[in-house]
Amino acid sequence: MTQLETHWVVLIEEESNRQQNGRQVLDWSRKVAFTDQEDARAEAWRLAHTHVPQHPYRPQRRQVIRHSEDDYTVIVDGAMSTFHFRVQVGESFATTLVD
């Protein structure tokens, strides 16, 4: 028998290394579980304004762009470069096998 578990996740996707065009996805909900979409949205908003990305070095300015209640792009200007990251809310469907 399978059991479908649903919960809300907050994902942060950021550039990990501009030279390699790398991206890194951080599943913030591994630290905090969200059973309610509104709680996940509130956390996404908070992270869009407070998350310290790996790049740029010495952030000086941040611009938060809201695409929807579940999706933000954040542009961070540093001393010598500009990077961006994305914060998104999604509904996760994990299937657990139950004996």
Description of the structure:
This protein is mainly beta. The protein has one domain (2-97). 14% of the residues lie in helices and 54% in strands. It has one helix spanning 37-50; strands spanning 2-17, 22-27, 61-68, 71-77, 82-97. A 5-stranded antiparallel sheet has the order 2-1-5-4-3. The longest helix is centred in the middle third of the chain and has 14 residues, at 37-50. The mean pLDDT is 82.
Annotate the secondary structure layout:
Layout: E1 2-17, E2 22-27, H1 37-50, E3 61-68, E4 71-77, E5 82-97
Antiparallel strand pairs: 1-2, 1-5, 3-4, 4-5
Sketch the topology as an H/E string, one letter per element.
EEHEEE
Mind summarizing the main beta sheet?
Answer: 5 strands, antiparallel
Rounded average pLDDT = 82
Query: What is the tally of helical segments?
Result: 1
**Ends apart, CA distance between termini:** 6 Å
Q: Tell me the domain tally.
A: 1
Outline: elongated
User: What portion of the residues fall into strands of 2 or more residues?
Assistant: over 45%
Residue windows where pLDDT falls under 50 for at least 5 positions: none
Structural class: mainly beta
* Computed Rg: 16 Å
Order of the strands making up the biggest sheet: 2-1-5-4-3
Q: Tell how many strands the DSSP assignment holds.
A: 5
Helix content: 10-25%
Entry keywords:
elongated, 99 residues, five-stranded antiparallel sheet, mainly beta
Compose a concise summary of this entry.
The chain is mainly β and 99 residues long.
